[in-house]
């Protein structure tokens, strides 16, 4: 079976490894923006081929597909979806696993996603206000209190500012911080011409985050196990937000701080959003879909945002645990025959993924780029871990160079978090730059200290949301809006 994978990074390398194990004897072909040695190897070892092509160009990708004539095409990242690559491939008659441009709007536009949840009354929604005008946003933000300021468009997981405004004597200073950040974000978002809204201001909530991924053919929803991403650059959730510095999974389908009931409720929310989306856009959603969730005192499982694809690095956690034929599942979804498919996983182990990045990421990718880097993959494999190549490029001189983002993802598993953590901490030491440029990773991911902290926070917010549910207050919020007074569960007036 010929499989064409579209994408260049760690997520696509994870998909390739999962597909490679299939009993359908896959030949893997890859269209990537740069020469990723991991993807190159998976293609070569299966008798396939790799191509360098702009993955957001419908014309170029269709050209690659017509040369390969694959049985299945898997579109990995979100940007090709936004650019219409998936639609162009389907228009040419190819079988494609990946969201269409209209369905991918659920990730591209946070305003669309939030409005959809309010329109269809889906639980786990937060209040928000979106802006196209910087002066209007500055004026609003001065009185907004506790808020989260985000780019209104998907921007690689970056650009989020959380402002906790509970100390009255600091309110004026925080107002200035918020207004200056609004201006900065507006300037950054001006380069995106495919959206009207530039920023979105959301209700701030506290709790523990986690990702719920599913595979769907538009009718059937096949849940995957919960995974927790760690988006902040530095230890204990400090520093700027990134595309994800690592993730944990297991044992089984839930995380140590999420209950089975919360998992079921989460999948119900994600499924309801998919149903609403299909109804709204008038076409089936075929591909991977994910809810970036938070367990909060307001709702319990609460939606932070959505992904119209597998998460990265969350997809990497699947590599050691999936026991089903993953390619068969993807193919069944793409052909709208997912009903009856089962996903088997190894429920006895846990997995830890650690991303290693060059200094300068995420704020200055230029500074983090073009550093020669080496990895002792054989030694990492001896430790029982796998290496996924992400933002690294093999150049004509035969040397591997950083591209400015997360360079590698190291995937380790064990019978306990302690075992997997020790492997991961050892494995990352076998990566180094040849020019002495610093690399960094998060030592706390998967540690017993951080896990215990997650459990404490989850137990605290669980008590709150269960008490609210008992008193009929689940999901209810009161917001003061200048000129409008106190609103309960506001929507009108919060979207412009």
Description:
- A hairpin with a 5-residue loop joins strand 21 and strand 22.
- The longest helix is centred in the C-terminal third of the chain and has 23 residues, at 448-470.
- The protein has 15 helices and 27 strands.
- 32% of the residues lie in helices and 26% in strands.
- By secondary structure, it is α+β, with helices and mostly antiparallel strands.
- Helix 3 (58-68) packs across helix 5 (85-91).
- Among the domains are: 2-97, Rossmann fold (3-Layer(aba) Sandwich); 207-440, D-amino Acid Aminotransferase, Chain A, domain 1, CATH 3.30.470.
- Strands 12, 15, 18, 20, 23 and 25 form a 6-stranded antiparallel sheet that branches.
- It is globular.
Characterize this entry briefly.
The protein is α+β, with helices and mostly antiparallel strands and 496 residues long. Helices cover 32% and strands 26% of the residues.
